[in-house]
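Supplementary material to the annual report.
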Amino acid sequence: MPADLLEKKRTGRREAVRAFKREAILQAARKIFARDGLDGATLRAIAAEAGIAVGTVYLHYPAKESLYAELLAGSLADLQKHLRDAVTRAMPDDQLMAGALAFYDFYRQRPDDLYLGLYLGQGLRPAGLTPELDRLLNGRLIQCYTVLSDAMRRQVPSEAPPLDADMLRAETVSLAAATGGALMLEVTGRLKVLGDTGKAVVRRHVELLVQRLRAAS
Amino acid sequence: MPADLLEKKRTGRREAVRAFKREAILQAARKIFARDGLDGATLRAIAAEAGIAVGTVYLHYPAKESLYAELLAGSLADLQKHLRDAVTRAMPDDQLMAGALAFYDFYRQRPDDLYLGLYLGQGLRPAGLTPELDRLLNGRLIQCYTVLSDAMRRQVPSEAPPLDADMLRAETVSLAAATGGALMLEVTGRLKVLGDTGKAVVRRHVELLVQRLRAAS
Amino acid sequence: MPADLLEKKRTGRREAVRAFKREAILQAARKIFARDGLDGATLRAIAAEAGIAVGTVYLHYPAKESLYAELLAGSLADLQKHLRDAVTRAMPDDQLMAGALAFYDFYRQRPDDLYLGLYLGQGLRPAGLTPELDRLLNGRLIQCYTVLSDAMRRQVPSEAPPLDADMLRAETVSLAAATGGALMLEVTGRLKVLGDTGKAVVRRHVELLVQRLRAAS
Amino acid sequence: MPADLLEKKRTGRREAVRAFKREAILQAARKIFARDGLDGATLRAIAAEAGIAVGTVYLHYPAKESLYAELLAGSLADLQKHLRDAVTRAMPDDQLMAGALAFYDFYRQRPDDLYLGLYLGQGLRPAGLTPELDRLLNGRLIQCYTVLSDAMRRQVPSEAPPLDADMLRAETVSLAAATGGALMLEVTGRLKVLGDTGKAVVRRHVELLVQRLRAAS
DNA sequence: GATGAATGAGCTTTCATTCAT
DNA sequence: TATGAATGAAAGCTCATTCAT
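Predicted assembly:
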């Protein structure tokens, strides 16, 4: 094998190892952030959870905040993929329901990610990442909502007049609020006490929405 | 005046002074928590804001955590009063809308209280307050929801059959989810980007709900 | 004793205690800075030397650099007093010699202070104190040199024409250089190997200077 | 070619390569030490500047300290060469002045080397190099002073009686002190404020010295 | 009761040094 | 020989909590 090919192969493996370690640190960070909060989490705890030394974390991430940033960005990317897959798999008439429930299920299975998003509003202040990061994250979130929004539009029969843009946006926001609120109530343990599940809330919201969409046409 | 009566009077005044100081500390804490966040706030800042020495805070609250526990309990009490007042002031047909919007406005004007509530699920652990406190807070939250729930029941015309208990509960949860979700989206800055306000979301939800309640009767 | 007087007395004692502690910390810092250098010195070492906890240092000085700044400013103030005293005590004809030797002796007895001054040129960069501090320190140093300069002027017989300002300044700088250089060589152990003492160097410099001053008149 | 000769030749080349790399590292270290200070410099920066990996530095120098030990030793060797060259180039009557000014200029152009020298007295402790190193460096410094001392001796007219050994030593020390002190004042920024330059101080010192030497003869 | 000086564990981050590859 | 990822011991600094006055 020629030297440069060997070199490339070695570099490739190194890259892979590096990516793997980054991911391991990220996993540990996700767990610790979720458990202790953005401020409560310590680098020591994250490093310990990842089974490495403190200094090693800094070989991959320049600061605590950047860990959080990457975590959140990755989470939103995963969510988007999750939503797209769910919508694609469903029959046209079920796509809205499938998307909404996928949104719900995603966070239900990864409650840590839900908390991650909450810190956006308050915990991220001191860091210097906000300007571009915020735009990036907002963009990703919007893309997620767009998946739902598109499914909503397809819910209207093709022979009927298409949905008014304002109404579409309003209904998307309502759906997002209902879903987010349901998750919140459930995760903070407030739903159990109210005798309901978040999933039912979401399902009911979508059912009513579909009825209205049909009636409007 | 007999000695024991004098004693009681003196004790009463002392109690009053004590309660007054507790409240002053609480006010200061509310302000500092709001300004610096739950983790960013320091006991020194709170004491300074209250115009007393650090040590004095410990004469009234055993730990920093208990301060925001009390703050949260007070917040829910305030919310309940706020809801009751709004509902009472409104005409029978507007009571549900008034209650829901009051819920929204309360947190909109006190966004920190919203975060306070969110921390319930995760941030309050280290202190030993959780078991009973959690029950207390849940109870208060339920009472708040009950105010909305009652208004919902009164929304149904008296000549029509009363609302099914299950349906009442389901609609209450949905309303809570929609309201909470709207607040969340707004506070984390996600609503602005979606071109909507939380208030509109809540109003729309209630309007649709009222329509359905009328149709059901 | 009236309450306000008692209060004042108590405050006075507190102030005294505070000043005393500040001084103790300063002494410890002087020792550690001299032993380990400006960067080598650690707050932990300083605190340990002072017999207090790390956090306590911060009750008196907001940062490591401010400790250094106060140390240096105090040192220069002491030097000035030392020089003035020496010159005042001496007979008119001996004042220049007395001042120069006092300069030398001061640092000979407090070699730490000599090192303190050396850090000025390089170690103080990151801190935010430099602009005013540097001016302050320069001012104090100039005042010290002025004491020598004045003595130099008085060395010229009153019936002779007074010293040219330029020459006075040049001779002052030369004296400062000779004295400083002698101290440096001695403190870094280079003089021992050269078989001489700094004091002799200074004395010789002054003797020659006096001869020249007399010859000039 | 016999095997052992081949071996020697190969070894010789290896040695040369090794020496070359050592020098490259040293150059890098000089630059970084100059830019960031003795404590501010990091091994990473030095390695990066030298274009090699961190670990590689340790193949040539056992510790960071030994790097600046070698740097300092090299600096003194350079100084000696610099002085010799300057003295050699000058006419007999100007050799003392040339040597003294060369001393001054050398450090003026390499202020970091001056600090390097100052650290000898205090900063070099942790490493285990001091005992022999200190002797070595002292020896080199003496050789430098000897260059000046020799020039001083040659300043005396050959027909006059040669200089007394004690006086020669004393004048050498005085010159060293004046030059060192002038450099110190200049480097720490104290000369600028006194309205003079180190060079002028040195020149004046030598002029007076030469007058005295002539008068003595 | 009220004070605030004192504590010291804990934080994030850096970096000289080691060692498997 | 050369590499650079990994280590972990510090560093400066903060702050909840205690306690002598």
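Residues 3-40 of chain C form the longest helix (38 residues).
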